Amino acid sequence: MSSRIKRAKQAPKKHIIPFTLMAIAFILVFILGIGAASAFALVDKWLEDLPPITDYTAFNVAQKTKVYASDGTTLLAEFFVEDREPVEANQVSPHLFNATIAIEDERFWQHNGIDPYGIARAAVNDLIGGTTQGASTITQQFVRQTILKNEANDITIERKVREMYLATEIEKKYSKESVLMMYLNTINYGDGAWGIQSAAHHYFNKNAADLNLAEAALLAGIPQQPTYNCPVYYPDNAKARRNAVLERMYVNGYITRAESDAAKASEVTLNLSEKPNDGIYLAPYFTSYVRDVMENEYTTDVVFKGGLTVYTTLDMGMQEAAEEACADKEYRLDDDVEVSLTTVEPGTGHIKAMRGGKDYYTDEWSTSTDMKRQAGSSFKTFALLACLEQGYAPTTAVSGSSPVTIDGWRVENYGGASYGTLNLRSATAVSSNTAYARVVRKIGASAVVEMAHRLGIKSNLAAVNSVVLGSQGVNTLEMASAYATIAAEGVYNEPTPITKIVDSEGKTIYEHVPENKRVVSPEVAYAAIEVLEGVLTGNGTGTAAYLGYQEAAGKTGTSEDWRDSWFCGFTPQLSTAVWIGARQERYIADNVGGANCCPVWKQFMNYALEFYPAADFAGQNAPEYKADMSFMTDDEKAQADAWARAAAAQAAEEAAAAKAAEDAAAQKAAEDAANQGNQNQSGGGQAGGSGGSGTGG
């Protein structure tokens, strides 16, 4: 720093504790009019229980926590109580050093932490009735704003003595340059800016190193009264204070008269750099979730004052693709209808993208994490896995006739369709409500709930039959996480938005390590994947999500009265859940998962998968299925048999009719051919005569 500042000649420091105590005691004798012995005794008492100054961390002040995207460079947010950004000496303009010393502590380079001359001057001035003058050195001010911050508002001689003593101790341990930088990185520059770098950014939108003379003088004048010297709200005060600083710089030899006059004549020109009040710059739904996760793990002081560096899982390219896909869909929907999308990476739990609504700042409520809405048929997936685990095969028969009433619960298929006898695979593909109502009757609602929780659903779920049709509230983060467990062959990882946290000293205090908890066998998971692949092909409800170039699986969902539509789909690389609805629940015409959510999912995944090599689901042997398994009651079996016999009879009748029609058509064709032959024979003489005539001509 020395080469960057014009320094007055510095007297050698003589740090002798008894001398310091004597000086303080003398001041007490002078001010309080007490005896020397009493003064020394009082000083000793006041200096009990002083905070230690063993290292630099003793003076830690509130520092901003910075949050970065997965690339490690894109700044998502800064969480802070005091907007402060510490810098080194070579990152500050020399004008600022000189201006600060000239106006705050002109004998900074000569004293040892307290300035007896300044104290005497202030005392004499008070005695003769002059204006109140401060006598605190820069070092004392630093002490007051850091290790004695809790005592800063105590207007007592005791606090002043403690402050003076600690100031001398600090100057024994640290160089003048270090003390000055600690001070500049700490003080309040008004309007929410703490420390010189934040002040330079806020008022002039530049770094502290780039401040010119007038700008440096303006900032140096603010800390005396950060509110009333603030150039934003009190520009006249700020300008007058700036000019006073410039005058002191001239008097102390830092600048010439010409330089002082020129700077005084300049107008105060600000270039304010505004920041959001919550410190969030990008991806607010995701970034606010990061903040919430951190507050659950650490104290508020650590999160907002600890100067942490947080590295997250957010992929900015995927986030932008998610925003675009959702916005494209919203453009074609009613104003109050919005799209939520969350993507989780199977095998790691990393949240790669999160879009929780149209506008975070409307109510700061996220459909990705705060929402609890019915999942519709996308919840059938958990019943499917429970069935497979219990030994039911995808080919197990189930009735899809509609409607059906089970224990007072009336269920019908979408559009009133009645499918007759299906198997579990086809019932999933066409999303038969009545088939899955019969499934849950057989396996029990508790099995569905237990499987959902095992895979990653965090919401409380009641073990009632309707749970199989998604009658209870969830959000897109839960659903993306649960489907990611299936994609990872039955291995669960807690979804996380954070990969690493580094403290203000550069020490890693957290690093995410995937848990890799097996919750379902790979055989059961793969059997479910094969069934769910059928949703995207053939007559499945999710064909609008079919990718073609990449294996994919998933399940559509639509809640009662079309209030919510869903598609939860996955590939080996990514699991993505999409929801469409209105925050204030209401009927939405044609809000069906297959038609509405699948195209959004496909648009996003087409972009996101560009960053991964194509991959197939890892094949597995089939689980051990039990023989003679069925979801149907005896009555349903009998009815199914009757339907089968009737269908067979009808088919035979139709086949016979078709055969008769075919025979009749063949007979008619033969007759027509014979008639045509006869006509050709009788017409032959005429043709010959015509030919003969031609030839003769």
Fold and architecture overview:
- With 697 residues, the chain is an alpha+beta fold.
- The chain has three domains: 2-49 and 82-265, Biosynthetic peptidoglycan transglycosylase-like (Penicillin binding protein transpeptidase fold), CATH 1.10.3810.10; 319-611, Beta-lactamase; 634-689.
- It is built from 24 helices and 20 strands.
- A five-stranded mixed beta sheet has the order 2-1-5-15-16. A five-stranded antiparallel beta sheet has the order 7-6-20-19-18. It has a two-stranded parallel ribbon with strand order 3-4.
- A hairpin with a 4-residue loop joins β19 and β20 (575-582).
- The model is unreliable at 8-19, 126-133 and 682-697 (pLDDT under 50).
Key features of this structure:
alpha+beta; Penicillin binding protein transpeptidase fold; Beta-lactamase; 3 domains; five-stranded mixed sheet; five-stranded antiparallel sheet; 24 helices; 20 strands; disordered C terminus
